[in-house]
Every structure is written in structure tokens, then in C-alpha cells.
Automatic annotation (TrEMBL):
This is Tripartite tricarboxylate transporter substrate binding protein. Residues 1-19 form the signal peptide. It comes from Falsiroseomonas algicola. Belongs to the UPF0065 (bug) family. It holds the Pfam family TctC. The keyword Ligase does not apply. InterPro entries: BUG, Bug_dom1. Keywords: Signal.
Amino acid sequence: MRRWLLAALLALFAVPASAQTAAGQTDRPIRVIMPLAAGSAVDVVVRIVAERMGETLGQRLAIENMTGASGMIGMRTGARAAPDGLTLLAVNDAVLTMLPNMNSQAGYDPLKDFAPIGQIVRIRWALVAHPSFAATTVPALIEAARARPGQIDYASGGAGSPQHVAMEMFLQATGLRMNHISYRGATPALTAVTAGQVPVGFFGLPTPNAFVRDGQLRLLGTAGPARIDTFPDAPTIAESVPGFTFHTWGAFLAPAGTPAPVVARINGALREAVNHAPVRSRLEQLGYEVVGNTPEAFAAALASDHATMGTLIRSANITME
């Protein structure tokens, strides 16, 4: 009996740490690498969702903003982390579908180096300007940029960021030229526009919402196919530039090789969180479109968006410069 008990105990302690994690037998915090600035659209949503996920998992989600090189530093760090369920990435689609299509030296493969967990939300976008800027509408901006080619500045969260790509797509659609001012993340870029240091920029909602309501920013237009409830009086850009739309999304990933039971467990916590009434209500009030899909659905969407964005980036000749 004693020999059997000793053997059983030895077998238990011989279980690898990754297997213990897969079975949910740890209360260690989960490190969440976010290659985005604090206060950005994805940062806001992840902090709302992470609290509920932590309650479900019995593990705190510790969010670590790791900006730099337009998010590539954080992505490389996450790709090389141990696939044990104790490191996740919270990302926007830019670092998966845009940057790697612009930079062959990104240092990670968006389709091979990560295990998709699930998309959290889709993010609506808007073109905003400082109130001192003479152009108060999208048509007025087009007219001003046409009169002063390459002389009007716009802000972005870095070369290859969604703010950069959104504006370059707008410029491609209108045949205009503007001057790109790059910042280290969406939040400092928005701060620059709010302070009047740069006149205009694209940003994901709800990041600029409070500034728009307080009169510190002017909303020129939203980037969806239809007007939105958050700002029902704001025209869409497509009303002046037919066919123009732009949106992004936020999602969770794990390093490639993370065991399927771990991925399923975290995905379950994600889907429970976004469908938890107080969480879902908060996200929708802020203007997010809740998704909460499966790892399989996310993987398919990622592959499709990566291919589509690659085609758009090449056709518009958008570069990291």
C-alpha cells in the first residue's frame, strides 16, 4: 500500500508544468503582452474584458503594454514566450495583417507563430481634427489638402499602425498627399492632435470620444458604411468619398504550441466575459461591436484579413516609411 501511494505521489509531481496549466491547476497570473499604447482602443476593451476573464479562470490577467517598433517588439516577445498558457497577447489586427505585409523583417509570422484564441470586438474608426484646423468637414479637408499637397500633417501611432494605414487608404482614395507624423502609439498621437500640434488623424473609437464631446476635437467623419449611434449626426466619410470604409478588431493570441485544452479554456472565459451582461453593455456603450468567436473562426478570419490587407497595401503602395 505504501509503495503504491509513493508511486502515485511521484507520478503526480512528475506531471509537467504545462500539463498542470492545461488542467487549470494553477492560480499564477497570466501575463498579457499588449504591443499597443495604454489608452488605445484595444487597451480599453481588454482591460474591461480581462477583469471578468480573471474571475472565470481564477487567475489574474496582468496586462503589460509593450510598445516600440510599431508593436513589433511586443509581438516578437510574445512569439518566443513559453506555450504554457501563462503568456497571452492582446492585439489589434494591425500587428497581424498590416505590419507583416509591409515589413518582411517584422521578426514573426502572424499565421505560424501564434495560436488564435478569439476576437473580442470590432472597432469603428473616425477622422478627427483639432478645432483650430480650418477644415471642418471631409470635403473641406480634401479641398485644403488638394490646395497644399504634402503640407498638411497627420498623426499616427507609428509607421504601419492602423492610424497610418487608414490615412494612407484615405489619401489613395482621394488622390491626395499629406505629411505623416509618427508617434510611439495611438495615445501620444491623439494627444498631439488634441493639443493642436498636429491638425488631423484617424483614430479608433472610443479613444477620441470624450475629447469630441468636450469640444477638444472635431469629428469630421466616421469610417463605417453607415452612421453610428454613438455620434448619429456625424457623416460617414463614404458620403464624401464613395466606397471608403475602415475598421479594425481586437483579439487574444497565445504562442504557437500552446496546448489545445488551454486555448479552449481561455476562449471559454473570453466568450463568457463578452456575453456577461454588464461587460457587453459597457462595450456597446463605448461603440464596440462585440464578437467573441471561436479559435477556429478567428483563425479563418485572420488568414482572410491578412490576404486582403496585403492586397490593399500593395495596391496602395503603403510602406513603413
